[in-house]
Amino acid sequence: MRNILIGILALLIGCAAGNAFAEDLAGRFSVGIAGGGIFPKDSDIDDTYYVGGNFAYGINEYFAIGAEAGYTSWDDEEAGVDYGEVEAIPLLADLYLRRPVEVGENILVPYVVGGVGVIFWDYEESDLLTSNAITVDMDAELGVKAGGGFDYFFTENSAINIEGAYIWSDADMSVAAFGLYGAATIDTDYWLATGGFKHYF
Fold first, then answer.
1. Within 13 Å, how many C-alpha atoms sit on residue 155's CB side?
2. For residue 65, what is the DSSP state?
3. pLDDT single digits (tens) 39-77
4. Neighbour-count burial for 140-156, b at 16+ CB within 10 Å, e otherwise
5. What is the pLDDT of residue 22?
6. pLDDT recorded at residue 86
7. Is the pTM for the entire model greater than 0.70?
8. Do residues 72 and 48 lie in contact, with contact meaning Cβ atoms separated by under 8 Å?
9. Residue 7 parent element (H or E)
10. Which of 195, 192, 191, 193 is nearest to 162 (CA)?
């Protein structure tokens, strides 16, 4: 009987700690860094890397708002010919829906996230293109994000972050060559998988 009472008391203390932690998420800021891979929807575009940072504020224990920025690039090649390099800098505003749960002595905060903002596209022509006076321009475009992930707290203020998301963004590209001009819209949607670190304060 004594062991049962001790077990119930420990469970109640654990639940109280979990609820207290959930309340502690309200009004707290977080800053984080992340790195991982980008997997384009277009199979003709090679998978590549991603690096970025994020910032968030807890409105309450369930909702947070934030912002993120990152960088990625990939080579534009076909049949062994190097045409240039595509660069992208996403800048998004995010909304998080989250719920802390206890995992042993630590806290796991799974979440879903939606974001919207702009992706700044740029094209760096290769020597082949520049030597032939061929220029390529890409415009900034709308970016929309949907994903999910979790923060795993290993201390009160420090967490490991894992996230997966899908980004919708079409890029407009214009090419000027030999006095001619052409334009096209490219499907640049991609999957994003990252791991990183967050600090809460």
1. 7
2. E
3. 998 877 789 999 999 999 999 989 999 999 999 998 877
4. bbebebebbbbbbbeee
5. 47
6. 86
7. yes
8. yes
9. helix 2-25
10. 195
Asked if 143 contacts 168 with a C-beta cutoff of 8 angstroms, the reply is yes
Q: What is the pLDDT of residue 61?
A: 87
Exposed, middle or buried, 95 (CB in 10 Å: 0-12/13-18/19+)?
Answer: middle
Domain ranges of the chain: 2-200
Given a cut of 70, the residues of the chain with pLDDT beneath it are: 1-23
pLDDT value of position 165: 98
User: For residues 168-178, b (16+ Cβ closer than 10 Å) or e, as one string?
Assistant: bbebebebeee
Structure tokens at 193: 């998988």
Residue 81's identity, in one-letter code, is: V
Share of the chain above pLDDT 90, in %: 52
The CATH code for residues 2-200 is 2.40.160.20
For the chain, how long is the longest CA-to-CA vector?
90
- Distant-in-sequence, close-in-space partners of 124: CB < 8 Å, separation ≥ 6: 84, 85, 87
